Amino acid sequence: MADSSVEIIEGCRLPVLRKNQENEDEWPLAEILSVKELPGRKLYYVHYIDFNKRLDEWVTPDRLDMKKLQFPKKEAKTPPKNGLPGSRPGSPERDVKRKAESVSLASQVSAVTPVSSLPSSADESQASVFPALRDSSFSITPREEHQPLAALTTNGSTRRLIPPQPGRKRKTCGGTDEMVKVFQNNSPRCSSIYLPPGEDSQDSSDGIPSAPRMTGSLVSDRSHDDIVTRMKNIDCIELGRHRLKPWYFSPYPQELTGLPILYLCEYCLKYLKSLKCLQRHLTKCNLRHPPGNEIYRKGTISFFEIDGRKNKAYSQNLCLLAKCFLDHKTLYYDTDPFLFYVMTEYDSKGFHIVGYFSKEKESTEDYNVACILTLPPYQRRGYGKLLIEFSYELSKVEGKTGTPEKPLSDLGLLSYRSYWTQTILEILMNLKPDNGERPQITINEISEITSVKKEDVISTLQYLNLINYYKGQYILTLSEDIVEGHERAMQKRHLRIDPKCLHFTPKDWSKRGKW
Residue spans with biased composition (Polar residues) (predicted)? Predict the structure, then answer.
């Protein structure tokens, strides 16, 4: 469909032909990020608008719909923002977003209504619960939605609106020991539950991701995005018996990015430019498993703990590989403050990497995971939940509650939500009646049992729409659909961590100077 008389340049937008999940043709709008001229033809690197970047690809001219070509708008020259050189003028998308935010703020001011205080004592909040209660008038609305905005005035004139500070704690679900009854369709498996004081949820499902931290081996930092890092630079990676198609940019050496295949040693993760170099390297490489201590083994599954300071080369190579499949993270070469836990599968040839997670040796914010990744050949087989479960088993041994570092990727958020859901429902459904009375459990007790941070427990219950407000009391309702869905999910979950197979002694890193 490409018209040879019209030159397509970077920044143009037009529909591009692609196959969807049902293998049907569709024409989503895409932006041209780069143009590459080959002998006799051109290739265009496109990003599909509103699609994940891992779907970006090189396409041929016949897949472009030239009839709906949109040229980039010329932007007027404006002074650099904040006086900083290199700042770019606002794009149409950002301008639209700003307008939408201003409208949203204005509508929030006009729609603010006072909210009565929530009950705080356990005696006031005890209640019976009816099965499958879904009356919208009793559902919990986060307090943040009703929080009035503060107006900043200077010399009597209103300057701007300031939303409530995100760091301040807000009360959303009553006191620490507030009781909430749990009914499960009149079955014997019912309980009462206490809700702690509401705090800002750390789940990024509210649409406003938490502010990224500027520490960590892989942390979000969009300020340095440019056309280079927006494009995949590696075509294919051969890792053991698998060939992987990278999803995102990774800062491998420039001379390796033009190769049709990048070869990695699957044991030390060293990158090589040819199969012959790899074969020569394997004759010298003595590793048949990741460096570090094996702290878990059950069946063919093993976990190795790797110190980012003692095994710096391996840790950096692992980060380079992980960056191929993690978009929202930026690579840092300072691996000293981190521990890496690599999950492997064992066979007669050695221990083959399946996935990994990293964590800070010392975390002031109770993070028990910095980055987490299951390699594509092993995805959708339960290994992601196994990595998550293992991270919480380590937290149990350490006697702490933990939470993953935010923001989570799209796939990471799905995995964590699924794990939290199954873990919490498993506890609620296994509670036994005590002397004919419904057993009682608090959010804090759930958090202590699972090592899941209480904010994640609350956000999961709210995400599942289990918390309701009924006759002055908070209730949890487990409908038949939720119970049956949970039982089906647990039947499919064959891989579990056995705490008896874990041989792990936590270290007090605060006493070790520079580790």
Answer: 104-128
Helix (H, G, I), strand (E, B) or coil at 137: helix
All residues at 6 or more sequence positions from 197 whose CB lies less than 8 Å from its CB, including other chains:
169, 171, 172, 173, 174, 175, 176
d(CA 320, CA 371): 13
C-beta of residue 226 within 8 angstroms of C-beta of residue 206: no
Q: Which amino acid is at 205?
A: S
The Cα–Cα gap between 415 and 384 comes to: 7
Backbone angles phi, psi at 429, to 5 degrees: -80, -15
For the chain, which residues score pLDDT lower than 50?
83, 85-172, 174-176, 186-192, 194, 196-224
Q: Are 244 and 376 in contact (CB under 8 A)?
A: yes
CATH fold of 288-501, please? Answer: Aminopeptidase (3.40.630)
User: What proportion of the chain, given as a percentage, has pLDDT over 70?
Assistant: 67
Contacts of 277 (CB under 8 A, 6+ apart): 263
How far apart are the C-alpha atoms of 176 and 192, rounded to whole Å?
Answer: 14
Name the nearest CA neighbour of 393 among 242, 503, 254: 503
Distance, in Å, from the CA atom of 238 to the CA atom of 265, rounded to the nearest integer, reads 9
Contacts of 30 (CB under 8 A, 6+ apart): 13, 14, 15, 16, 46, 47, 48, 49
Strand positions, DSSP E, 145-204: 150-154, 157-162, 178-183, 191-195
| CB-side neighbour CA atoms (13 Å) of 34 | 14
CA distances from 439 to 18, 122, 442, 487 (A): 55, 15, 10, 21
Active site residue 405: yes
The Cα 73–Cα 64 span in angstroms is 20
Amino acid at 498: D
79 prior amide bond cis, ω within 30 = no
Residue type, 114: P
- Residue extent(s) of CATH 2.30.30.140 domains in the chain: 12-68
Nearest to 344 by CA among 394, 280, 300: 300
pLDDT digits (tens, 9 = 90+) for 102-130: 444 334 433 333 333 333 333 333 333 33
**pLDDT score of 331:** 56
CA–CA separation, 268 vs 315, rounded Å? 9
Neighbours of 421 (CB within 10 A): 19
The C-alpha atoms of residue 420 and residue 66 are separated, in whole angstroms, by: 47
Question: Residue 310 corresponds to which amino acid?
Answer: K
Task: Report the pLDDT value the prediction gives residue 473, as an integer from 0 to 100.
Answer: 66
Quote the tokens at residue 502. Answer: 């874990």
Please name every residue paired with 407 in a beta bridge, in sequence order, or none if there are none.
Answer: none
Choosing from 405, 426, 445, 487, the catalytic residue is 405
